[in-house]
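Lab notebook page, bench 4
Experiment: in silico fold of construct C2
Operator: M.H.
Input chain length: 245 residues
Purpose: comparison with the prior construct
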Amino acid sequence: MEIIIKPNPLELGIAAGKTAADLMRKAIAEKRSANIILATGASQFETLNQLIKEDVDWSKVVMFHLDEYIGLPESSPASFRKYLKDRFLAHVPSLKSVYLVDGETDPETECIRLSKLITENPIDVALVGIGENGHLAFNDPPADFETEMPYLVVNLDEECRQQQLGEGWFKTIDDVPKQAISMSVKQIMKSKQIICSVPDKRKANAVKNCVEQPVSNEYPSSILQLHADCRLYLDTDSAGLLKDE
């Protein structure tokens, strides 16, 4: 795992977005297409802002995303489909394919649909974040490190739901869904390259556990230590608890 520390979220996002675009261009040059995963949430604002400014042949890009709440309408401000359409897809030319997670249909059927599609499109570049509880996608601790299913139905723990409330996506904790469709840990780890953007002081403990704890499903993001090509982008606040910061 390569750790890159920038002074603030803006510079973190610029660096992460530029690197992601470089890797996409490389994949397109080598095999005429790039299969990518995009994350959502407050941690990804600046990374996506940079990515949409980059010169990428989007007509050769296939996009998946990590997760979506079950039962939440796409019209909700907290919908990850809405997030990606508003913050990314509306600002770039049409992609080769876009596979969004539909949380309003039968969850098991949707998992099967997406699992088949992502198996047919091995991921070149995954953009991910880390939750305050250390989760990857919505794989809260103790995360399932063993399932081979690319997508699965997960239960959201209290800390995860409180984070969504604290970030302002919902008005009350009762509004935060208790289940989601999430990409599995093993599927994320199958990505050729991973760009992990984690700004903000409230993520500092999760970052410390990700980097310094032994790999454990109690610290889901710690598994990134085992990935062959993972870049962890931090700002001075999120890196503040690291021993060698």
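Observations: Helices lie at 9-31, 45-51, 80-87, 107-120, 158-166, 185-189, 204-212. The chain has seven helices and ten strands.
Next step: discuss at group meeting.
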